[in-house]
Fold:
Amino acid sequence: MGLIKAMTSATSSSLGDQFKEFVTCPEISRNVLVQRGIVQHGKGNKNPSEGIISDGSAIVVPQGMAMMIIDNGEVKEFSSEPGTYTWDTGSEPSIFTGGFFQGIGETIKTIGKRFTYGGQPARDQRVYYVNLLAITGNKFGSPQPKKITDEKYGMLEVTFFGEYAFQVKDPVLLVQNVIGANAKDTVTYEEVVGSQLKSKFIEKLTQALTTVMRKQKVSFGDIGMYGSDISSEMNTILDESWRKQYGLEITDVALADINLTDESMKRVNNIDDATIFSDKNLQSGLMAQATAEAMKNAASNDNGAVAGFMGMNMAGNAGASLLGSVNQNTNPQTPETTSTPSDSASPKFCSNCGAKVTGKFCSQCGTKTGL
Structure:
């Protein structure tokens, strides 16, 4: 029993009349993974046998689909090469992979040998089509916070959501496991990737995120840019439950958003603050930013620019003293190199221009200081 390539172009309804049965795939929705073929009996077949594909029948394989003939629950024939085939019960079994999966014949042999019932036709022969296109737009989200390990911040609790895509990579394995003894005409991806596999997906996604962050040396905020790496890692982790059991592979993971819990946000902020005040370059940048903002505020001060700049100078001196203290704590000096100001008196400022003064007159504007 085997398939013989009849023609590779599209077939019309009139062509079906030339065969005993004409088997085609009905139009399917995007969420259908497996669909039973429609058998149209030829005009000359006045008494067709249901569940029997007659010798000389035509079977159409559309683009983006794999076709297989199931004989009493066993995979009898397979093709993923688009075209029209003639069913020949007297020929040797044939496998048309179309370059899709060259080892598909070995999969069929592993699942179960072909059989002919001593030359008698089987009682239940069905044609099934498997959707080989990527099934996109599958949403996921973490109902509860999940723990991930960040290289910089350590253990964090996050919530996330996004979409993923998957594709059938071994249609024979899929059909064998989802059809089984309870034959169905249509199998949707919700029935295959149900609550069990979705829960497994979410559970393993946190592990994949941690692994990719470690390998790529990135923090949680940038992990969304590594969709292909996450997909690859997910296929490795989900190999037993997705690939080996159902012949499915993750083709893409798009992480729309990842959010920290309140406790983890506090942890991140504390670590960031500690990092800033231990880095001199960051200290200088913060000081420059604060000075620019202070000058802007001083110019628009309701009590006048002079009073505003006086306050700015005082804040600047206080900030410099604070940064000096931080630098001393970061890089402590030896007793020999540490100096202590001899004048402990508070500095004075000009009431007119805000400049620091030490004499009776301001060196900047000449105003009498009263010292």
